Fold:
Amino acid sequence: MRALVFICTATAVVGLAGCSGGTTKVSTKSAGMEPGEVFWAKNKLAEQTEMPGEAQFRDFELLELSNGDRVYCGEMNEISRSGLAQGFVPFYMRRSGGDVKAVNWSSESADFSSKKCQDARNGALRINKV
Structure:
C-alpha cells in the first residue's frame, strides 16, 4: 500500500512539474517601427478598451526578442463611454507571429507593465513558456 501511495505521489509531482510552463530568459533589443506594425499593435491594445477608436498612446516603443517575439511598451489613455479620460497608464504587450501572448494595460497592472518594459529596455526579459 505504501508503495502505491509513493508511486501516485511521485506521479502527481512529476505531472505537476510537467504542466508548469515556467519562464525562459530572452535577450532584447530596440527594433525599427514599421507604420503597419505600429498600427496593428495599437489596434490590438485599443480593442481592450470600452471605446477602441478613442484610445490614445504616448511613448510607444518596440523591442525585438531573441526568440523572434516582439514586445510593445508605452502608455495608453482609455476614454470611457461618458467621454472621460482615464489617464495614461503603462502597457506591455508581447506578440509571437500574429498571436498576442501577453497584454497588460490597466492601472492594476501598471507596476507589472513598467517592470517588464524596463527589463526589456535593459536587454533581457523573462517570458512565459507558452
Residues 2-19 form the longest helix (18 residues). Strands lie at 23-30, 56-65, 70-79, 85-96, 99-104, 124-128. Residues 1-20 have pLDDT under 50 and may be disordered. The helical segments are 2-19, 35-46, 110-121.
